[in-house]
Task: structure prediction
Amino acid sequence: MSIARVFDDARARLNGCPREQLGEVVEPRRVLGVRRAPRIVPHGDAWHLGVLLLSDDAVLAVGEVVRSREEARRGFAAESQRDRAALAAAAFRGGFPEGVAVHVGWDPVDLDAVERGSPSGPLAMIDGVPSVRWSPAAGFAPLAGYLEDRIALLLDPPRGAS
Result:
């Protein structure tokens, strides 16, 4: 079975399941030489399946996930906290309601390249079996089983997991 077919079957099973928002960072043009704050604008939606995002017409490798939040002055113990707060505020400025999870920095996965034997994102063909690397430190797992587990979690989430 082709990788594209595996994902088509997954889409059919996921029909009606909740999706998460995709966003794209936009650096606004300067106005009278003054730099304006970046914003994250909507770029569709997708099902979040671990290290993959599955939209109606694409498979994407997950980047970062932030919750949209109105900007507020805060003290931060780490620069990484400041960066995440800036991304959350950029999502709010881009029009996402407060509290909504937004995926940014995602990358398209080239399914044709994987079919030809070249890795793309977390996907690769291992001994003729479409496989996924679910963590940078992990080995590859068969894609079909990985998707089955992830879809089962979306269809029947554990109690208290919302």
